[in-house]
Design goal:
The protein has four helices and 16 strands. By secondary structure, it is α+β, with helices and mostly antiparallel strands. It has a single domain (27-271), classed as Creatinase/methionine aminopeptidase superfamily (Creatine Amidinohydrolase, Alpha-Beta Complex), CATH 3.90.230.10. α1 runs antiparallel to α2 (62-75) and α3 (143-160) packs antiparallel against α4 (169-182). The longest helix has 24 residues, at 32-55. It is globular, with a radius of gyration of 17 Å.
């Protein structure tokens, strides 16, 4: 799940919420025990997304995918991270074509041949979250859409390849931005990646473009980051729909997104939500 670049929370709805523990502040370094738990929460997320990529077909609705994801997350002993988060009503974010992030699943939203479908989900297992997103080209997509999906995924991995203790957040951002712009697409700047662990959204914000707006954090072993570029085929600008969640491209162009939860190690990285 994405976050706004100037916040560390998703947009809130005015719904009453149960009292929860106060969110910790600052960048958390996970212990070996905590990392092992996160491996399990992330494995659940990876399993669900892999299964969704295999079962999705034209005629299904995004509500069908949401019901499947919630069922599987709970079967594996976890709780959907997104459901109820600041009032979000579902277990996945499901976005089609020009929808960018935070799409609410709907039984009337039918998946069709050629759609660019984004599915983002999280699992809360033994007090730790995993978070990941995939983009699926439904059956057969147009060449430009296929390129957009490919470049978005490549950009994510270009960023991940920069991860190791001693590197900096802007190393990740620069690699992502360069690859996207070299392919004549745009980085969405309103939303960023984030730290993840005990909380779904933790510090630091993980930008996908170079900026001086926040400190250029030095990475340390034990940090866990959700690296998640969003790539638009047209304008980088977005707008929020009346549901107060769904972001769409301002020019109706296509959008693609990929996300992995990544562990920083002394020598590099471990992709905790690896679907292979």
């Amino acid at each position: 799940m994405k976050i706004f670049s100037n916040l560390l929370t998703a947009p809130a709805k005015p719904k009453p919420r149960p009292v929860k523990k106060k969110q910790r502040r600052g960048i958390e370094i996970k212990s070996e025990r905590e990392i092992e738990i996160m491996r399990q929460s992330c494995k659940i997320v990876a399993t669900v997304l892999k299964e969704i990529s295999q079962i999705v077909k034209p005629g299904m609705t995004t509500a069908d995918l949401d019901a499947y994801a919630e069922k599987r997350i709970r079967e594996m002993g976890a709780i959907p991270s997104f459901k109820g988060y600041h009032g979000f009503p579902a277990s996945i974010c499901a976005c089609i074509n020009n929808e960018v992030v935070h799409g609410i699943p709907n039984k009337k939203k039918v998946i069709r041949v050629g759609d660019v479908l984004k599915v983002d989900t999280g699992a809360y297992y033994q007090e730790f979250h995993g978070d990941s997103c995939i983009t699926i080209g439904v059956v057969e997509v147009a060449p430009e859409a296929a390129k957009l999906i490919r470049v978005a995924e490549e950009a994510m991995y270009k960023g991940i390849e920069q991860v190791k203790a001693g590197a900096y957040l802007l190393d990740i951002a620069g690699a992502i931005q360069y690859h996207i712009e070299a392919n004549n697409f745009c980085v969405v700047e309103e939303f960023t990646g984030h730290g993840v662990g005990r909380n779904l959204h933790e510090e630091p914000a993980v930008f996908n473009f170079r900026t001086k707006n926040l400190p250029n954090v030095k990475l340390r072993a034990g940090m866990t980051l959700a690296i998640e570029p969003i790539v638009n085929a047209g304008s980088r600008f977005t707008k929020i729909l009346a549901d107060r969640w769904t972001a769409v491209t301002i020019d109706n162009s296509l959008s693609a997104q990929f996300e992995h939860t990544v562990l920083v190690t002394d020598t590099g990285y471990e992709i905790l939500t690896d679907r292979s």
